Amino acid sequence: MIKKKVVMLGAFAVGKTSLVQRFVHSIFSDKYLTTIGVKIDQKQISLKDHDVTLMLWDLYGEDDFMKVKSNYLMGSSGYFLVADGTRSETIEVAEKLHDMAAVVTNNAPFILLINKSDLTDLWEVSEERLNGLRNKGWNVIVTSARNNQNVDDAFYALTEQMIGQQTRPLS
Amino acid sequence: MNTRRDNELLGGFTREVINYILNKIPPYLGLFIIRTDSEGMVKSSIGPWEKYLSNKPERGEIIDDTVPMLYGMVPPLVNPMVVSHLNVDENRYADVHVFADTQGDIWIFFIDQTRQVEIIHPIVQLFNQERLDQRVDKKRSGTKETLAALYLLDFLGFERRGENYRQIGKAPGWFTRLKIDYAPKGPVFPLKEVFPYLEVFEAEAERIWKGTDDDKLVSDIWQEVNYDGETVYLQALALKHDNRSFLLIKPLEKGKDLNDNFLQKAREQKLTLDQLASTEKKLKELLGFKDQFVSIISHDLRSPIGAVIGLIDLLLTDQLVQKKLETEQIELIADIKSEMFRLLDYNDKLYQWSNLELGNFKVRAKSFPLQNLANYVEKMQKAKFEQKQIIFEAKIESGLTINADETLMGQALNNLVGNSVKFTPPGGKICLSASRDSEHIKISISDTGVGMDQKTADKLFESFTRKSTMGTYGERGTGLGLGIVKKILDAHDYTISVKSEVGKGSTFTIFIPTFPHP
């Protein structure tokens, strides 16, 4: 059994907890409840003949009052950057967190999730902006924890990248 | 907008205070804040006051009277002033920070430290007692037995030896109810397998465990779930005492330790502000589209209006046409021309207005004599002066120059003088004067017109007035003229005031700072 630590990073209220709850427990709640501290969930998945236990570290969101400690990324095999498609400034927070995470994890695989795609009327993030990020080599997935859109796909995609990195021969 | 939001984030918390909270007082559990003025008069408070005080400090109260324990601490003797482990009542301890910001306000932060004191005191007391009794044989000392009783206080305790953790005494009830995969297999407790979060805290705690001095470190909070499906919030304390290393874990109690929804409220407020900012942005975009639309239409309408006026001129000057028309018909055509001129004026103002709204202009400042503006205005209004037999007088101090956009200022003064013409009865007088004192160059337009009451004067420079008052000669206006004046003056950082008396006339004065703002 392979064990992989995955950290959820992002601004506050972008849906980190909702994405984990949707993936692990198949539940979703509309009520916003700020995450206090750290919540660690586990989920076992099978992927390409590998049984993988994902240790999902759901961290409190970053804002003016709370800064995410880089220590939380110690030993992580990958991370999600989560942003809210209805608040474009949360992408900037994700970019800033990525700068820190890339150093601490020694460039571990990551995926940027633009969450809340169900809120089409309030959507702020343009396709041009997403393409700009993709052109930097980022894997960007638009998700909805509420509608369960692309949530499982995102977790499987990151797991595949982490396994790929593990099995990749050293050059 | 951004400056205001930066300085007044989240209901009056300035960036400076947020930085203080962020850097000096984590974690936020039990955080209670009082804000006073520099004299210690309460302005506001937020958070669970009942944890520390018997009465909530109310606005206007003096902090020394309301919270006697703070006597002599406000204003702080040193900034910030921190008092640790203050015994606020029989069962509660707090750290109190008193911080004076640069705006002259004083912020008092209460942070609940009861748990830390509860943990440390029994251990420290025990060791002190041991020394007093000169019981140096630790194998026979009461240490182990006393620490073993920590579970009765709900602590799950460990002593760290090398890289391993040995459990002290029994496990408290909350631990046995946690939904975790754990079965005791020997003296060494697999701490990081049971609580993966502690791999992070362990790395932080190494600093004090490897030190030689007594010290403590409190962890962040992490969550577990028990068999009832309830979330359990846990916090750990690393302790170094008398060269021994301990790790103690205890759940936070809802209602006691977790009754602070400060962060939740702050974030909900921030979300609301973000949503408002987003809506404001979208509204501005829509208004921009509207102004752009008006700008394009009013620009394109100028040519056909001009063409119609040209054709009317042809009709009025062509001898053949004149002979064929009755006098009444010629008067009607003259009326049409007059209305077309009014339409052109209205259209021009709309064009100027929409472009000012869109910001489609740049202030091209240069130094020029104020007399130029007086000459320009006189030329533009000459026909109207003659029509209403108004005496126009320009009194410009000799050699007075300003550094401004001559075209825009000409437009502004022309609108102001035009407004005076409109409300001055035939035979009246309008005076344009300019003088300089130590602080300002003042340009005044005074008239002997109908004047206005204070209520009207107060609303005069609102962007757009739906109601346009008819002039003394039956002139009709656009309702945009004075709004345009205000926008032009704002763009120059100039101010304007109006003094008026009903039946006697009005004076508009533009103030131009002699030294521009930095």
CATH topology of chain A: Rossmann fold
β-strand amount of chain A = 25-35%
Give the uncertain stretches of chain A in residue-range form. none
Q: Output the number of helix runs of chain B.
A: 15
| Average pLDDT level of chain A | 90
Class of secondary structure makeup of chain B = alpha+beta
Estimated share of beta-strand residues of chain B: 15-25%
- How far is the first residue's CA from the last residue's CA of chain A? 26 Å
CATH architecture of the largest domain in chain B: 2-Layer Sandwich
Largest sheet of chain A: 6 strands, mixed
- How many strand segments of chain A? 6
Q: Give the helix proportion of chain A (percent range).
A: 25-40%
Mean pLDDT of chain B: 82
Poorly predicted segments of chain B: 1-9, 134-143
SSE topology string of chain A? EHEEEHEHEH
Indicate how many domains the architecture of chain B comprises: 4
Spatial order of strands in the largest sheet of chain B: 2-1-5-4-3
Describe this structure in words.
The complex is a heterodimer of chains A (171) and B (518). Chain A has 171 residues and is an alpha/beta fold. Chain A has helices at residues 16-25, 89-104, 127-135, 151-167; strands at residues 2-10, 38-47, 50-59, 78-84, 110-115, 140-142. Chain A has a single domain (2-165), classed as 3-Layer(aba) Sandwich (Rossmann fold). Chain A is 30% helix and 26% strand. A six-stranded mixed beta sheet of chain A has the order 2-3-1-4-5-6, sandwiched between helices. Chain B has 518 residues and is an alpha+beta fold. Chain B has four domains: 2-112, 2-Layer Sandwich (Beta-Lactamase); 117-251, Beta-Lactamase (2-Layer Sandwich), CATH 3.30.450; 279-358, Helix Hairpins (Orthogonal Bundle), CATH 1.10.287; 366-513, Histidine kinase-like ATPase, C-terminal domain (Heat Shock Protein 90, 2-Layer Sandwich). Chain B is 41% helix and 24% strand. Chain B has 15 helices and 17 strands. In chain B, strands 2-1-5-4-3 form a five-stranded antiparallel beta sheet, with helices on one face. A five-stranded antiparallel beta sheet of chain B has the order 7-6-10-9-8, sandwiched between helices. In chain B, strands 12-14-15-17-16 form a five-stranded mixed beta sheet, covered by helices on one side. In chain B, a hairpin with a 5-residue loop joins strand 8 and strand 9 (231-241). Strand 2 of chain A pairs parallel with strand 8 (215-225) of chain B, so a sheet runs across the interface.
